[in-house]
Amino acid sequence: MPRAPVATFVLSLALAPLAAQDPHLAAIRTWFATPPAERGPAPGADIALDAAAVARWLPDLVAACRDGERALGAETLPPVTTNAEQALQPHERKVGSFTFPYVLLAKGDKPAGGWPLFVCLHGGGGNAEATGPHAWDVNDREWQAQKTLWARIYPAPGLYFIPRMADDRQGRWWFDHNQIAFDDVIREAILFREVDPDRVYLMGISEGGYGAIRFAGNRPDRFAACGAMAAAEPLDTSPPQDMRNVALRIDIGERDTMFDRVGLARRMGDRLAELHAADPGGYDFVVNVQSGRGHGIDYRPCPQWLATKVRNARPDRIVWTVRPFHSRVAVQNGWLALAAVPATMPLHLTATLRGNALELTAELEAADKPGTRLPATQGRVHVRVDAAMVDLGRAVTVRVNGKDRPAQTPHGNLATMVQTLAERGDPRLCFPAELVVDLGG
Description:
Strand content: 25-35%
Distance between the termini: 26 Å
Radius of gyration: 22 Å
Low-confidence stretches: 1-18
Strand order of the largest sheet: 2-3-5-4-6-7-8-9
CATH superfamily of the largest domain: Alpha/Beta hydrolase fold, catalytic domain
Structural class: alpha/beta
Helix content: 25-40%
Number of helices: 10
CATH architecture of the largest domain: 3-Layer(aba) Sandwich
């Protein structure tokens, strides 16, 4: 199967923006500057694109998206600075009624392909007896510890987003308000702070590590890699089968037995090893049990390992358990998307795209037979593609739940590029064409 090289994003943006004078560009810029709820269909549905035209259009679309988001007030991250004293002054981010103090710290020089971005989650957690959202001194100390680790051991180059927990009375880094905040920060960092979309990482210590593993199992396409230090999660909260395309590292002390942390880590490693043996193209992981250590471990190996990983935005296979993560349900995962939140969940999707052949499995769990899955027969799955994945303009064979379906021929279209870029603000998840698979046949 053709693969998009790592340098695709950088090279595409370096191309001359030949579409700059196109009369459709003004409409696209206006569309991006319109609040999402008021936009209507993406413009450009009548503009067909071949692979060369896609590359020419991408820089203009990214610029239009950036300008539109800026006009809508979406640029809120502080400027990147190497002045540590200035960078360490806290800023605040609001999500609904929640407020996150945070710092954005740069280390080293920005690479030619853009900054690696590390989202760093502190330990501590929730305290129901705290007198206010930021009243527990444990979370204050743990937040400060992250900034100290940035100065002493976290790798360069890197841009480090280090938030403080929004509400000590609730805790939990994977709650909805955190999901929204991280999505927004990643989007802004890509569009406005020169972050490489394929080098975004999530790591945390203790409570923060629990969050990192949960995101790996529930939002795997957000990150190149996730790292948990002194933390572990059960298989049912962080489904390892969904981690096919995100690297995961767990560092745990062999004596860290509280809450069975070391046991949970070992079981996660055993399951990921089974999955990798069955599917060697995925499931890149390390479970490092540190000898003689308890809950206090050596934090140096994890961030160094994460920094070597690069997201493959176009893997040949996606495994996706569609279900609520806290209460939010994602409707995109890499090059897959759903037309709507499924009426019945969990929905188990496995999509394999090799050459011009798509094989899709969509299953639901039988209500009267636990552990048994039945074919899903309702809903639509959108399969986004480009010339690095299939031969545009040539038929793609389609097989759903073991049965052949009529072949579909994908054609590049400007509106599809605009829509997919708007969804995530991620140029590497901007696609010119899609197949639409009706699960009902």
